[in-house]
Amino acid sequence: MKLLAIFALLLAAPAVAATPEAAPVAALDSALIASMKAGSAGQGFAARAAALDPVVKQSFNLPVVEQNSVGFLWPTIPAAQQQQLDTLFEQFTVDSYVSEFAAYSGQQFALLPAEKSLGSKKIVETQLVPSDGSSPTELDYVVADGANGWQITDVLLNGTISQVAIHSSDFSSLVTSGDASQLIAALKSKIAALSGGSSQ
C-alpha cells in the first residue's frame, strides 16, 4: 500500500528539468497542468490566462517565435504595428494554451531524457500521457540559448509538425510590405474566438 501511494505521488509530481535547456519546457508543463486543474475547478478563462501569461513569457522567446511566424516582411512593418502585434501574439499564444488545455482528468506530462541537437539548438521531447492508458501525445520543443537563457522557439506537434510553420502559412498572406493591419484584425478575431470575449 505504501509503495502504491509513493508511486501515485511520483506520477502527480510536476516535471523536473534535468538540464538547463529542459527547464523552460518543465515550467510550461507544470503551468499547463495547474491551468487544467483550475479549469476543472471552475476558474474562469481570464483568470487562467492571467496565471499562465508570465510562464509563457518566460518559457518562450516570443519575439523570435512571432517574427519567424510573420516571415521575411516583419522588418517592413511600421513600429506601431509591430508593438501591437507583440501584444496580440502574446495574448494569442496564452489564450491558445488556455483553450486547448482546459480541463484536467488525471493526464500528466512526461519529460523524456533524450535530447536531440539541431545546430546550436536542442529538441526537448515530452509526452502528454492520458490517465486512461491510451496512447500519449508527443509534444517536442525547440529551445535556444539566448540573452534570457534557454527558451522555446518552436513547438513540434506529434514530434514533426512545426507550429511556427503553421503560423507562417496562416499569417504570411495577411501581411504586405509596410502593412500588417489584416494580421492584426485576424489575431483580434482569433483571440475573441478562443476566449469567448473574456480575455483582457
Count of the separate structural domains: 1
Low-confidence stretches: 1-14
Q: Largest sheet, if any? A: 5 strands, antiparallel
Strand ordering within the main sheet: 1-2-3-4-5
Q: What can you tell me about this protein's structure?
A:
It is a single chain. The chain is of the alpha+beta class and 200 residues long. The protein has a single domain, classed as Tgt2/MlaC (Nuclear Transport Factor 2, Chain: A, Roll), CATH 3.10.450.710. It is 50% helix and 20% strand. It is built from 7 helices and 5 strands. The protein has a 5-stranded antiparallel sheet with strand order 1-2-3-4-5. Helix 2 runs antiparallel to helix 3 (45-59) and helix 5 runs parallel beside helix 7. The N and C termini lie far apart (47 Å). Residues 1-14 have low confidence and may be disordered.
Furnish the topology, listing elements before pairings.
Layout: H1 2-12, H2 23-40, H3 45-59, H4 62-70, H5 79-100, E1 108-118, E2 121-129, E3 137-146, E4 149-157, E5 161-162, H6 163-171, H7 181-195
Antiparallel strand pairs: 1-2, 2-3, 3-4, 4-5
Helix pairs in contact: 2-3, 3-5, 4-6, 5-7
